[in-house]
Amino acid sequence: MSDSTNSPPPPPAVSRPNKPLSEALLNEKWDHCLSSLLIRSSIGVGFGVVFSVLVFKRRAWPAWVGLGFGAGRAYEECNSSFLRHGKEGIRIQRP
Question: Which InterPro entries match (predicted)?
Fold first, then answer.
């Protein structure tokens, strides 16, 4: 049983260039920063609302302060992750 019809060979796979390692690392850092900002800010607002209800007679400013603290903490963590540019295990001191 020979196959008399020869099927053409499949086309070669198109190789797409992968993202450079630095771009992938940068995207990962940005993803981490944005998720950290969202999580820490919402936790800060949550604590602000709880303190507002329990202690400050339902004022709005504790929620805003909590949002600011959460966003500030996320910003500082993100900034330090972008400034870190050494090998793991080597401590880099900023001037």
Answer: Mic10
